[in-house]
Amino acid sequence: MSILWEKSETWRWLVRKTRDSKPFFLAFATICGVVPGVIGYGVMQLTNSRNPQLEAQLRQTARPDSLMMGQVNRERLAEYLGELQRKEDTNDRYVAALKGETLTRKPYVRIQPIPKENTNEQKNDKAAQKN
């Protein structure tokens, strides 16, 4: 930042104006926040196509792996939503995710609860690590 302060008179002017004038600061902050948001929204609206013909063409020319992943994601979402409707315990997913594991199973079959680790084995492992 010191390079900007030492070399750029425009930067110095901008800092002085925002420091000394609250209305200028609010206007500058609004411009910095709103203008990029409006531009981004406009770009998203221009590039977002709701053309049914284009969507149909893209679905027809999709790669097989993309279609397979879409089907897998739909099945997993349906399974998860079904578990939520049935109010099943899904904590094992979170436990596995915290351990860095991915739960794999046959579709629509719940995983058995994760067994509690044996405390004797843990003590033996700690003793072996110390030696």
Helix content: over 70%
Q: Count of helices?
A: 7
Strand content: under 5%
User: What characteristic shape results from the CA principal axes?
Assistant: flat
Largest sheet: none
N-to-C order of helices and strands: HHHHHHH
Q: What is the count of β-strands?
A: 0
Span between N and C termini?
53 Å
As residue ranges, the low-confidence spans are: none
Mean pLDDT: 79
Q: Tell me which oligomeric state these chains represent.
A: single chain
Structural class: mainly alpha
Q: What Rg, in angstroms, do the CA atoms define? A: 28 Å
Throw out a few tags for this protein.
131 residues, single chain, mainly alpha
Please render the helix and strand layout as text.
Elements: H1 2-7, H2 9-20, H3 22-47, H4 52-60, H5 64-85, H6 91-98, H7 119-130
Helix pairs in contact: 2-3
Organism: Melia azedarach (Chinaberry tree)
Protein name: Centrosomal protein
Report on the architecture of this protein.
- The chain is mostly helical and 131 residues long.
- The protein is built from 7 helices and no strands.
- It has helices at 2-7, 9-20, 22-47, 52-60, 64-85, 91-98, 119-130.
- Helix 2 (9-20) crosses helix 3.
- The protein is flat.
- The model has no long low-confidence stretch (mean pLDDT 79).
